[in-house]
Structure of YqgE/AlgH family protein:
Amino acid sequence: MKIINKDFFKINNKRNPKQGDFMIAEPFMIGRFFSRSVIMISEYTNAGIVGFVLNKIVPYKVTALVDNFPDTDCDLFYGGPLDTDRLFYIHTLGNILEGSLSITDDLYWGGDLESLKKMIESGYANRHNVRFFLGYSGWSAEQLKEEMNTKNWKMVPSGSVPVFPPNMNLWEDLLKNLGEHYSNWRYFPRHPSLN
């Protein structure tokens, strides 16, 4: 008889999180924002961490929620539980969009919204280079360290996750690519108590 591996849900993080990295939620995490989520860390400082959930879509378009917004094919995502009445965006437009903050060499967040609207109207900005979020995810440095110690997140280095185009199966796809140990998480039921 084969013994079940007790380390089935053990998370091995061999690095500390940093700006541009991705956080993959362990399968037991509950809640609308973080259950089976993938978060990109957009800012990492001693003052705190800002990130956006990449795989939780809002059932509305940006144009339905933001006044005077140009028609766009861009989807809208839940960025996290903080400031959910504010619009945030990540993009690959770089310094062409004034006021943008660098996440990695080729990925940015924020910037002048009026300029972005003009880029959308011209067709220069679209779902292949801009993603919109309602709200964001945030932690103090100590809070994230504690969550890492309790093994809530698997860290994946920047550049290893495609941000564009959006992928609603990102959590499952990343787990498949992390090997058998993490790949098996995909089969864990969302609500074990209902089995």
